[in-house]
């Protein structure tokens, strides 16, 4: 069964290049109007227990462009929201669908869905990881910078789901990765160790620091994410204080390589994790990155559905 749940476990080093090639091909076919109904007659269920703009729209439109269909299954409307178990849900949906994409809080709910079901499961974000975002990010970096190997990405801010997945993805792609976060908000050691393991194979470097300028130095890509992730809304005032020195602003961009690009998974909060001049300035590739979610997700869908 071909799942896409955890970038470290589910994406091989060679497979990553293959996925990036398919994503680039999907983009070309979409832009030039070449029909690519590789998933004709297939159905994807999309379970959301958290909000989404990009992930929802890209998977839904992606399935349509691939000749299949997508069903939006909101937590408010399906029986999971009233306490039906993951076990029952996995078994029922396996009998009707060809694959499930799920965005939820607990990472174990996603792995349980895969364990109990008999169809591919795609992780559309958990509290711990955001692996689908990574393929779009790497595609964007490749489009802007060429070969990924040897580039440096610096992430400033919360050691959250996006940061964890960036550690996994950069190390796998042979990119140096530096994460700068306040001491108590760094990525869990599990992700650092996974990145170090892959970095040994791909020849890249991993730096964990509390100093945003040390991380940003000579970086080719500067990346940040919201300081208050979904589910942490009550901590917002406190988090604004904790992360204020980790804002991506012109000083940080000037510390990076002179041709550095700025990425953000979005949604962004201008004036907090990034200043307006950076996110709306010439180095910012955030809308190219957002569009690439569509092309990357189509590559993930084809890889999961046709290789299971
Ligand atoms: N970046 C991202 O996952 O965006 P959405 O929350 O809008 O899906
Ligand atoms: N870290 C953010 C990412 C949103 C795409 C969150 O979990 O809310």
How does the SSE layout of this entry go?
Elements: H1 7-10, H2 13-32, E1 43-48, H3 54-65, E2 69-74, H4 86-94, E3 99-103, H5 107-116, E4 121-123, H6 131-145, E5 152-156, H7 161-173, E6 176-180, H8 189-202, E7 206-209, H9 212-216, E8 221-224, H10 236-243, H11 250-255, E9 261-264, H12 276-279, H13 286-306
Parallel strand pairs: 1-2, 1-3, 3-4, 5-6, 5-8, 6-7, 8-9
Helix pairs in contact: 2-6, 2-13, 3-13, 4-5, 6-7, 6-13, 7-8
This protein binds phosphoric acid mono(formamide)ester and norvaline (NVA).
Question: In words, what does this structure look like?
Answer:
The chain is α/β, with parallel strands linked by helices. It has 13 helices and nine strands. The strands form two sheets. A five-stranded parallel β-sheet has the order 7-6-5-8-9. A four-stranded parallel β-sheet has the order 2-1-3-4, sandwiched between helices. It starts with 6 loop residues before the first helix and ends with a helix. The model has no long low-confidence stretch (mean pLDDT 97). Norvaline is lined by residues 125, 160-162, 225-226, 229-230, 265. Phosphoric acid mono(formamide)ester (CP) is lined by residues 52-55, 125, 133, 265-266.
Oligomeric state, counting identical vs distinct chains: single chain
Overall SS class: alpha/beta
Q: Which fold name corresponds to the CATH topology of the largest domain?
A: Rossmann fold
- CATH top level of the largest domain is Alpha Beta
Helix content: 40-55%
- What is the string of SSEs from the N terminus onward? HHEHEHEHEHEHEHEHEHHEHH
CATH architecture heading of the largest domain: 3-Layer(aba) Sandwich
Query: Ends: how far apart?
Result: 5 Å
Distinct compounds present: phosphoric acid mono(formamide)ester, norvaline
Tell me the count of domains: 2
Range of strand content? 5-15%
Q: How many whole angstroms does the radius of gyration measure?
A: 19 Å
């Amino acid at each position: 069964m071909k799942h896409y749940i955890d970038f470290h476990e589910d994406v091989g080093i060679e497979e990553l290049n293959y996925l990036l090639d398919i994503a680039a091909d999907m983009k070309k076919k979409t832009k030039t109007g070449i029909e690519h109904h590789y998933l004709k007659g297939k159905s994807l269920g999309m379970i959301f227990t958290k909000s989404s703009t990009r992930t929802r729209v890209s998977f839904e439109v992606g399935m349509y462009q691939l000749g299949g269909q997508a069903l939006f299954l909101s937590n408010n409307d399906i029986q999971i929201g009233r306490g039906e178990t993951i076990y029952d849900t996995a078994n029922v949906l396996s009998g009707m669908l060809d694959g499930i994409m799920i965005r939820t809080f607990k990472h174990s709910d996603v792995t349980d869905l895969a364990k109990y079901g008999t169809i591919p499961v795609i992780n559309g974000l958990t509290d711990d990881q955001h692996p689908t975002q990574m393929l779009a990010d790497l595609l964007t970096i490749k489009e802007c910078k060429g070969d990924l190997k040897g580039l440096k990405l610096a992430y400033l801010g919360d050691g959250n789901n996006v940061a964890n997945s960036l550690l996994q993805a950069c190390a796998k792609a042979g990119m140096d990765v530096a994460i700068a976060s306040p001491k108590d908000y760094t990525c869990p050691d599990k992700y650092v160790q996974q990145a170090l393991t892959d970095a040994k194979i791909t020849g890249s470097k991993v730096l964990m620091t509390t100093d945003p300028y040390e991380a940003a130095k000579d970086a080719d890509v500067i990346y940040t994410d919201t300081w208050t992730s979904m589910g942490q809304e009550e901590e917002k005032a406190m988090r604004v204080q904790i992360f204020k020195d980790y804002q991506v602003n012109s000083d940080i961009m000037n510390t990076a390589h002179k041709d550095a690009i700025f990425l953000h998974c979005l949604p962004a909060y201008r004036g907090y994790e990034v200043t307006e001049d950076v996110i709306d300035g010439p180095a910012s590739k955030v809308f190219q990155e957002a569009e690439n979610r569509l092309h990357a997700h189509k590559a993930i869908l084809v890889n999961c559905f046709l290789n299971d």
